[in-house]
Amino acid sequence: MIEINSKQRKYLEKLAHDLQPVVIVGGAGLTDGVLKMTKNSIASHELLKVKFNEYKDEKVELTNQICEYCDANLIRIIGNVAILYKPAEKEDDRKIFLD
């Protein structure tokens, strides 16, 4: 994970505002399929939203598990939606650049 300061966090939140959740945690919880889908999605999008339709009381713990599995940064949890960020491995593939 990279270090993200408050200015960068606000910038990423602004970029994520219009995004729709790509990953949804439902009744089955945090399955291997959900983790793999999140890892693949964040690798291609860099910034994504995860929505919690179920397990809303455990969303902080589950989000931390997702971030650890994907090596991503938690930007913020707003309501039942978590915003995650992980820059692309190759600099040429990056879509989002932080100062």
What is the secondary structure topology, with strand pairs?
Layout: H1 6-16, E1 23-25, H2 32-45, E2 47-52, H3 59-70, E3 73-78, E4 81-85
Helix content: 25-40%
Number of continuous helical runs: 3
**Major sheet: size, sense and barrel closure?**
4 strands, mixed
- The amount of beta strand, in percent, is 15-25%
Please provide the count of β strands. Answer: 4
Span of the ends, CA to CA: 16 Å
Order of helices and strands: HEHEHEE
> How do the strands line up in the largest sheet?
1-2-4-3
Structural class: alpha+beta
Mean pLDDT across residues: 93
Radius of gyration equals 13 Å
Shape: globular
In the predicted model, the low-confidence regions spanning at least 5 consecutive residues are none
What oligomeric assembly is this protein in?
A: single chain
Summarize the model shown.
The protein has 99 residues and is of the alpha+beta class.
Written account of the structure:
The chain has 99 residues and is α+β, with helices and mostly antiparallel strands. 37% of the residues lie in helices and 20% in strands. The chain is built from 3 helices and 4 strands. The protein has a 4-stranded mixed sheet with strand order 1-2-4-3, sandwiched between helices. Strand 1, helix 2 (32-45) and strand 2 (47-52) form a beta-alpha-beta unit. It starts with 5 loop residues before the first helix and ends in a 14-residue tail after the last strand. The mean pLDDT is 93.
Overview features:
single chain; 99 residues; alpha+beta; 4-stranded mixed beta sheet; 4 strands; 20% strand; globular
